[in-house]
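Q: Give me a protein?
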Amino acid sequence: MRKSFPIQLKRLVTAALDSGGEVKNNLPSFAQLKEEALSDTETIIGGESFRSPVIEKAGGNGTRQLLFNRLTRDKGQFLIEEAVVNFLSAQTSLPFARMIIRDCKSGRHLDPDRLLPPDCAFTPSRLLKVRVEFDRHHKRMKSEFFPVNLKTYRGAGSEGEFYFNREAGRLAYGNLTGRGALLSLFHEIAHAWQYADSGRSAKKDFSSLFSFLSLRLHNLGVRMEAYKNGAISEEKFHHFIDLAREKLAEKGIKLDTESIITENPEPPENSIIFTAHSGKRFFFHSQAFTNALKAYIQTERDAWAQAILALRMVRNRGFNLEPGFRKLKDFRNYIHPHLENYCASINSQLEMDIQRLRPKNKKNAGRNPRLTSQLS
């Protein structure tokens, strides 16, 4: 993310609080959707939770659905209003949501849509369903989105994951009423800007490389068991070893084939260990793999740092979105388990020193100075 991002973030926060400027996408505004959703509804009381009926309009390409939902958080201090548009059709028309967060004490409001990069929108994660399949023609993984009926969605108090989907251009959210939920929302907004700035996703890059590695080594583990059981010849087994070595080398991964042939259980120095489903441990060296993992971990930490910065900017303007986060330890206790989960998911199949991938400096050994500065 650019070093100038804090300056850009300041402008975005100002626009989100003052509702200045335009949201750079072609979707209807929150006000337009709210007016449409409530057009046939009696007047609602300002501070109460409310859910409108789902309005459906049939068209040539299917059915458009619209819902307005209002709920409270932090003991009634804030109101979260969302207008959700959904499509039931054979066409790939993705759901989207507009939202406003209102401070009942000051009367001010925050428009989170103005924090998003161009051509990006929010959507409830329960409505963004994706089927991932292998495209044999193009020889790559592809994502297919399929519709979910809006009538099954219970509003922004529903459980769900927070994530940014770069293919859909959607920032998916779950329960916005929970403690730390808005910090998680800002974290994903930072990921959306990371992708907007670079055109790449470090998480996607690492996941693709890790999936490629896993597929090759899981298959090789199966071939090894087949060889031990006499189902394939030694010549055929060596062919599979060479094939895996060549394919992995194309990705900058050097597989230790000698340990496979000799069945040496001791890993070479500084090697990374991968455990296949068969239980076989494979050893490899790869600067490309290490760099991809390091970039992934760094972008996660950077996104948390930017989320805290955004939250503090909003708070300094009199809009305390997370009143339960008062001290340094409150932020740490919420964020650090997320950081550890990234490492734990990687270590479930890999044996490597994740700690050495983390940036260090003399003052804060083992900590990310950017993250530490925002936690201070």
